[in-house]
Amino acid sequence: MSKQILMVLAEDPFRDPEYFEPRKVLDAAGYQVMTTSTAKTAKGAEGAVVNVDLLLKDVKPQDYDAIVFIGGSGSYQYHDNKKAHELARYAAAPGKVLGAICAAVGTPANAGVLKGKKATSFSGVADMLKAGGAAYTGAGVTVDGNIVTADGPMSAKSFGEALIKAIK
User: Fold this and answer.
1) Which of 72, 103, 131, 133 would give a disulfide with 14, using CB separation of 3.0 to 4.6 Å?
2) Residue 96 belongs to what domain range?
């Protein structure tokens, strides 16, 4: 059975390349990728519109092998969202994979799952990572165990590739 991956998109806006680049890599690897947001459609900063597969409130984390938070200015909506924190904590557990890119790395940081971990993000949320106990690397992509983080759109493809390695 193929691995199930959940990508969490901001309602408006997410960063288009941070979703589409890793998604291409995950699709090419044969994984089943589902998308979720707080609305039935998510809007990208560059104009993309994604019809989501299910609403965030309906997500059952146990249905997924990996949960990936996609960045963009809209991703701040999840930094203090209880359901998003529940998903991050679930995905950080052994045997699962947690991914987050750009500003979305603030969500797992605030969920408490980056404490004692190396992580990277958009520099604008670096202080949030440090406050959450993470060792901020400032790298393009950082992998610490089953947690994969990335700094932004320029690392989106490498982020997708790092997710594949972590999921295998």
Assistant:
1) 72
2) 4-167
Amino acid 119 reads: A
Tokens of 48: 């993309």
Four-residue CA torsion sign, 76, 32, 156, 95: positive
* Cis status of the peptide bond prior to 153, with omega within 30 of 0: no
Residue 47 contacts residue 19 (beta carbons within 8 Å) = no
pLDDT digits (tens, 9 = 90+) for 1-59: 579 999 999 999 999 999 999 999 999 999 999 999 999 999 999 999 999 999 999 99
Tokens of 66: 């990996």
φ/ψ of residue 3, rounded to 5: -70, 145
39-50 pLDDT per residue, tens? 999 999 999 999
Closest CA to 53 of 70, 31, 34: 34
Q: Are 46 and 20 in contact (CB under 8 A)?
A: no
